[in-house]
Structures are given as C-alpha cells and as structure tokens.
Amino acid sequence: MKKGFKTFLSFALAAAMIFGMTACGGNSGGGGEEAPAEEGKVFNIWCWNDEFQTRFNDYYPEVAEVAEDGSTTTLNDGTVVNWIIEPNEGNNYQNKLDEALLNQENADADSKVDMFLVEADYARKYTNSDATMNVADLGGVLDATSDQYDYTKEVVSDADGNVKGVSWQACPGLIAYRRSIAKEVLGSDDPETVQAAVADWDKFAETAQKMSDAGYKMLSGYDDTFRPFYNNDAAPFVEDGKTLNIDKNIMDWVAMTKDYTDKGYNNKTSLWSTEWAADQGKDAKVFCIPACTWEIDFTLTGNADPDETKDPEQSAWGDYAVCVGPVNWCWGGTWITAATGTDNPTLVADIMTKMTTDKDILKKIAVDKGDFVNSKSVIADLAANYEGNDFLGGQNHYALLSDAAAGLSLKIASPYDQGVIEKMQSSMKDYFDGNVDLDGAKANFETVIKELYPEIETVNWPE
Fold first, then answer.
1. pLDDT of 264-279, one tens digit each?
2. Domain boundaries in the chain?
3. Is the whole model's pTM more than 0.85, yes or no?
C-alpha cells in the first residue's frame, strides 16, 4: 500500500487505499460524525520547516509558553502542541506524513495527526483524498475566508469544489534586484527604471548582456527563472493519471537557461545550494533573483544578512528592491489542513480562523515578517499606508503587488508537480553544462520520472 501511494498507481486508487479512513464518516469532508464533547490536550502539527511554527508562536493569541528547544508550544488551556518537522528533501516530508496518516485510524488520541501543512506542488494529493476535512465542516471558517485571494482556495479544493485548506499568505512573484548594481549599470535603482529593463524576456536578455559587460551575472543559477515560466503553463502536467505533457513554456525555460549558461549570464548554481545562497550576499556579483513574497523574509533576508546585523556596511541589507518583472506568476505558499480523525476539531477551526482571517493578526505578520498576507483588505490598507520594508530600502512592495495578486491562478497545480519539477531541473543540468545533448537530457528525464511515477506511460514534449 505504501508503494501504491508513493507512486500514485492512480490518484483515486491511491486515495482509496491509503486514505480510506472512516473516522469521520468516510466521506471527503468528514461529515456525519459529531465532534467529541471534550477535545484532546495533545495537538500534533506536521510541517517541513519552522515558518508556520514561528508565526504561530508569535501571533496565535492562545500561546502561553514555548519550550526552550522549540519542540512544543503550550496553550492557555494547557493543550500541548507538538511540532513534528520533517524536511522536504527527497520527498521525506510526504513519505513520513503518509506513514502517519496510514496509521491515523488506529492511533491513540495523543498520537493522531491533528493538522498538517501542504505546499501547492502536492496539495491536491491530499485534498483530493479523505485525509483532509472540508473546511466547511469546521464551524464558520469557510465563511470567514471571503476576503482571501481566490487562487489560495482554488489550489486546495477537491474535485468536487470542496475547500480543504486555508493559508495566511498569498505568494505573487517578483524580481528582487540589487540597488547598487542597478545604479552602476542601469543608471538608477528606481523600480520603474528596473522594470523597464526587465519588462519582457527580450528586455531581460538585453539587460543580462549589459550586466555581463559590466562584470556581473544576471542570475545565480539554472533554476531561478523556472517558476515564472512554469506558472504560465496552459494545463497541469498530468490530467489523466498516465500521460505527462510538457508545456512549451518549460522548453522555453530550457532554451533560455542553456543560452544564459553558454553566455555566462548565470553562475551555474542550483536552487537552495550553498553557492546559490552566497550569490544573494553583500559581496555577490549577481544582479537579481526571481523570488516570491515569502522569500523576502524566509530566504533572501537570511542569505543577504547571514550575521543578522541589519547593517548595510556588513551585509546586503537595504540594497535590495523589487519590481514585477517579465510576467505575472506565483510560487508556493503554505496551506493548513485539518487531518481527518483529529480529536481537536474546535482547536483546528480556531487556529485556521485566527491565523488566516483575523485582520489584526495578518497585518502584524505582514508588517513584522514581510509576508504578503491572504487578505485583500489588509493588503489594500498596506498598499496605501505601509511605511516601507527596511530590507528593501524602505520600498512599499505591497503597493507594487496588490493588483498582480488579484489575478493569480494555480489551476495548473497537480499532485505530480513537486516530482516533475525537481526531476526536470536536475535532468536538464547536464544539458546546461554540455555533458549531454537535449535529446539525452529528455531521455534521462523520462527514465527518472517513470521510476518515480510508474503509472506514467507517456511523456509528450512540445514540437
């Protein structure tokens, strides 16, 4: 059964085999069984990093105490929140979570998964299964999400349109660039000037040549522009459970990245590598990085200011700004889901409501952390009144992105995205470096993707 889930023998079959839990009535929403009169005093949250944990500990009003080692959080009523954090790498988080969900029905109350977090790249694997409860079955949570961006509910809706998760953030993409390099090469660090220089992919390439002539790299690595291309695909990678369709946008990314590599426009790094992170620091010679809003606080600030000095003399703090770039896009985000079988549905509902719809809490998160929070009205207020982000040299990035966020869509999301994206990026690396030709890279991709998803019978490439 575990193998069948991992490889998606078919999506419906996987859901039936692995998530066929009946603790809440056996339907996708868990309706049909009343919540227990008394809730448990142990609450288990599964996630892959501490992003939500820090926001929960800092902003959830029921927090009473956080353990010194960070492993638990005690609430005002004595409930102990256990943080089960399993890194994403190599599908580790999903594998460990799947194993826990396999045991959910027979687990004792204190060991059950109560809440788990998902990313867009694999959200529908869980929301199209009985592993997650309908948000509509959790009190008035769904009604409270009316101010959220539509796409954030779209990506965690099941095949019948039931919303199965909520998020405190939206994640429009942008181009983060170094102000000092912009001044030197483009004559100004003003976002409007830089936007004109990267307004489309042809302008982007022209600016890349200017950066190269001045001794700079336009980008750090191969993967930096993948998401802007992918997010504008016409359809999901897999729609019928057996055929993988590669969109022309993906091959445009391949062609551009090969060209940039051959011309020396990038530094030949890979996403999340030590070298990639170093290219965001004070002494780096890389002009820009396509980044989504969560990266400002969670990734870019740390890489630009590893010693946490917030000192422009010692770090790149204040030397970044953002513009929209060639295309509108989004990447990722984190969604909170209620695990079917939880003995704490009331607490789940309260966390969802306060952490994703309470406007005062969301505004604090936005101002303190730089998150693009999932509230149209809060973002509208920030766009008009925010004093500016110190890391971005005082720029009000909310004003820049408020309009773009309203039109975001993730209709192309599928349960296969994480695996397909990771294997595409790794398989094409040898081509970018000149170790194989394009046909060889395609063949290598087909081999590894069919090993990962044996049900995939055909890979179609665009002409």
1. 999 999 999 999 999 9
2. 2-170+332-385, 173-329+388-406
3. no
